[in-house]
């Protein structure tokens, strides 16, 4: 389960997140909260979730800081000197993994780990660049360009990492999503037999699920919208589509092909024409989608549109953003 954009936005809860998680737990599902946000310690994240009506223990939280520390631990001995560029969550993860923390590049660290924290600025980025130029390994907790907040999209760790890369020419190893290791670590910790990855961002949450060979559930409460999903490349495509976390306990019928049409429930969609375009069947009438005006569709219609568009793209007739409208998906009651 991703956090930013799925369970909360900054300090604000996402609608229906608490009820969705509670209902899923009631059916025996265990939640592991897996986040690319490296600024806070797992227990701090768990405390916030608990305050939002989702009782959580620190052992149920897997951060990209922990994943980065695990990557370093594979190659570096205990006690190795590492320069953290980030917040308390990153420092605690490195310490718990047995590393000593450098204060600056002058300490000659063998590695630099960069994670997001609001206080990261020019002094910290400069120390990172100096250490990397001197030969230190470079690991990033994640490469997310943006971070969802209650005010909108803020600068994410990937944008700050880009400054260090621009200064040094060194591209870091990334520990967080979309790399698969963080998913595998979370699944191992939970003892999962049939894991499901839940996220809002195609190029991290859902791409990571694909890379880890875990089915992905995409929700529309964060970054990637319904049109993004319809146009998703194969390595970012979700296995299941939903509006919000209530979908954890709802059925997910799969669209089935019938000639040119993809059908799911009462909805249907297809890609047709010499210049590919989408058609969708809504309330018994067929509508041609030209990308100009927003269209309100049911969840089943969105499933059909995605299946039709993905099939057409895989057959060499991909649609463009100009050919697909903004889609407002209505949650089932």
TrEMBL record:
Any one Gene Ontology MF annotation carried by this entry is:
phosphatase activity
Q: Does the keyword Ligase apply?
A: no
Which N-terminal residues, if any, form the signal peptide? none
Q: Name one GO cellular component term.
A: cytoplasm
- Enumerate the SUPFAM superfamilies for this protein: HAD-like
Query: What InterPro entries does its record include?
Result: HAD-like_sf, HAD-SF_hydro_IIA, HAD_sf
Pfam families (UniProt xref): Hydrolase_6, Hydrolase_like
Keywords, ordered alphabetically: Hydrolase
Write the protein's name. HAD hydrolase-like protein
Which organism encodes this protein?
Answer: Georgenia ruanii
Q: The organism's lineage?
A: Bacteria, Bacillati, Actinomycetota, Actinomycetes, Micrococcales
């Amino acid at each position: 389960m991703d956090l930013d954009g799925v369970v909360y936005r900054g300090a604000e809860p996402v609608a229906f997140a608490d009820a969705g998680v509670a209902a899923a737990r009631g059916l025996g599902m265990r939640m592991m909260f897996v986040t690319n946000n490296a600024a806070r310690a797992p227990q701090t994240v768990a405390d916030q979730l608990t305050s939002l009506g989702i009782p959580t223990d620190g052992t149920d939280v897997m951060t990209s800081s922990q994943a980065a520390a695990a990557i370093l631990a594979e190659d570096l001995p205990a006690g190795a000197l590492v320069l953290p560029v980030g917040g308390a969550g990153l420092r605690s993860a490195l310490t718990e993994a047995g590393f000593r923390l450098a204060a600056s590049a002058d300490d000659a660290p063998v590695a630099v780990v960069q994670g997001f924290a609001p206080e990261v600025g020019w002094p910290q980025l400069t120390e990172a660049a100096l250490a990397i130029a001197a030969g230190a390994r470079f690991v990033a907790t994640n490469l997310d360009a943006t971070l969802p907040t209650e005010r909108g999209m803020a600068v994410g760790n990937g944008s700050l990492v880009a400054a260090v890369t621009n200064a040094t020419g060194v591209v870091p190893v990334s520990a967080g999503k979309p790399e698969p290791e963080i998913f595998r670590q979370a699944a191992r910790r939970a003892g999962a037999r049939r894991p499901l990855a839940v996220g809002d961002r195609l190029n991290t949450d859902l791409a990571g699920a694909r890379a880890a060979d875990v089915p992905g559930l995409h929700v529309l409460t964060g970054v990637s919208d319904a049109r993004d999903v319809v146009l998703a490349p194969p390595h970012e495509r979700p296995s299941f589509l939903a509006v919000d976390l209530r979908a954890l306990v709802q059925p997910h019928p799969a669209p089935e092909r019938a000639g040119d049409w993809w059908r799911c429930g009462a909805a249907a969609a297809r890609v047709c024409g010499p210049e590919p375009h989408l058609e969708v069947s809504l309330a018994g009438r067929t509508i041609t989608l030209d990308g100009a005006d927003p269209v309100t569709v049911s969840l089943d219609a969105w499933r059909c549109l995605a299946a039709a568009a993905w099939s057409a793209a895989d057959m060499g007739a991909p649609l463009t953003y100009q050919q697909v409208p903004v889609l407002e998906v209505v949650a089932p009651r």
